[in-house]
């Protein structure tokens, strides 16, 4: 599953993300930001990887992972979207190509949220957040064409199937 990056690059990425204090610190977020900035600055490398693609959907491709972090390339087919969600772990992402629209929400109860902000994320954009929240958002690719982003999550991909903590339904504010 982790065959997309060479063993050397995979090892370097995971070493650069390792901090003594774990994945819930500002030091970790700084390290993740540096790794993402390096990866999004190499769109040719990322675009040449044999990444799974699903027209109209998004597909997650594991690039590297260990017991503390997982690094994914997400290919966003035109029209694809995540649910409205927050995370149980640190969440960092950078846009490699295309445009990913990120919409932020505010929870009004345990499963409903209202939209607060929306931004188009262009190639080179990098963001990092801790799960201390509120970090409720939705990612979408309105097109044209596909988009690719790299995501670094502070979780073991062999223990958790996803970084999502809670999913929400949008309601009018």
UniProtKB/TrEMBL annotation:
Origin superkingdom: Bacteria
Keywords, sorted A to Z: Dioxygenase, Iron, Metal-binding, Oxidoreductase
Bilayer-crossing regions: none
UniProt key word Transit peptide: no
Family: Belongs to the cysteine dioxygenase family.
PANTHER family documented for this protein: CYSTEINE DIOXYGENASE (PTHR12918), CYSTEINE DIOXYGENASE TYPE 1 (PTHR12918:SF1)
Name of the featured protein: Predicted metal-dependent enzyme of the double-stranded beta helix superfamily
Species this protein is from: Bosea robiniae
């Amino acid at each position: 599953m982790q065959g997309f990056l060479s063993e050397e690059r995979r090892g370097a990425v995971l070493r650069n993300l390792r901090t003594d204090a774990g994945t819930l610190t500002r030091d970790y977020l700084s390290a993740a930001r540096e790794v993402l900035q390096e990866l999004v600055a190499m769109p040719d490398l990322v675009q040449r990887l044999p990444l799974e693609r699903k027209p109209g959907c998004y597909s997650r491709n594991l690039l590297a992972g260990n017991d503390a972090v997982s690094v994914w390339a997400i290919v966003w087919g035109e029209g694809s979207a995540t649910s409205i969600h927050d995370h149980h772990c640190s969440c960092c992402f950078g846009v490699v190509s295309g445009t990913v629209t990120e919409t932020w929400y505010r929870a009004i109860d345990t499963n409903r949220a209202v939209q607060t902000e929306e931004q188009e994320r262009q190639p080179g954009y990098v963001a990092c957040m801790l799960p201390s929240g509120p970090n409720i958002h939705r990612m979408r690719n309105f097109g044209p064409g596909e988009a690719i982003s790299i995501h670094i999550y502070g979780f073991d991909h062999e223990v958790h199937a996803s970084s999502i903590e809670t999913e929400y339904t949008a309601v009018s504010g």
